[in-house]
């Protein structure tokens, strides 16, 4: 049997088209809700966070403020998200 020589292509492979990163519409909707409808709760959470971080010994955790903010954000977003579902 004769040995066949393999042809090596030194050129780079053809470039594949770059796929666009898909954006989750929920991220944008949630951000808009936080900015437009829940700004007062963001302020309360920031105040709590500042207060807690300024103390060395405290049992306060700001969990209630965070839960209130997330509830507000998701309550607002649920009304909008189904407009984007196919």
UniProtKB/TrEMBL annotation:
InterPro entries: Cyt_b-c1_6, Ubol_cytC_Rdtase_hinge_dom, Ubol_cytC_Rdtase_hinge_dom_sf
GO cellular component: mitochondrial inner membrane
GO biological process assignments: mitochondrial electron transport, ubiquinol to cytochrome c
Keyword S-adenosyl-L-methionine attributed: no
Disordered as annotated region, ranges: 1-25
Topology versus the membrane: Peripheral membrane protein
Location(s), subcellular: Mitochondrion inner membrane
Skewed-composition ranges (Acidic residues): 14-24
Keyword Cell membrane: no
Keyword vocabulary terms for this entry: Disulfide bond, Electron transport, Membrane, Mitochondrion, Mitochondrion inner membrane, Respiratory chain, Transport
Classification via Gene3D superfamilies: Ubiquinol-cytochrome C reductase hinge domain
SS bonds (residue pairs): 33-76, 48-62
Chain ranges of the Ubiquinol-cytochrome C reductase hinge domain: 24-86
Annotated function: Component of the ubiquinol-cytochrome c oxidoreductase, a multisubunit transmembrane complex that is part of the mitochondrial electron transport chain which drives oxidative phosphorylation.
Family: Belongs to the UQCRH/QCR6 family.
Protein name: Cytochrome b-c1 complex subunit 6
Species for this entry: Argiope bruennichi
């Amino acid at each position: 049997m004769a040995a066949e020589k393999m042809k090596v292509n030194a050129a780079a492979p053809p470039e594949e088209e770059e796929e666009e990163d898909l954006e989750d519409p929920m991220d944008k909707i949630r951000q808009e809700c936080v900015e437009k409808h829940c700004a007062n709760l963001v302020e309360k959470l920031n105040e709590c966070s500042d207060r807690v971080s300024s103390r060395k010994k405290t049992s306060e955790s700001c969990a209630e403020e965070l839960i209130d903010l997330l509830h507000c954000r998701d309550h607002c977003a649920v009304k909008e998200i189904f407009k984007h579902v196919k």
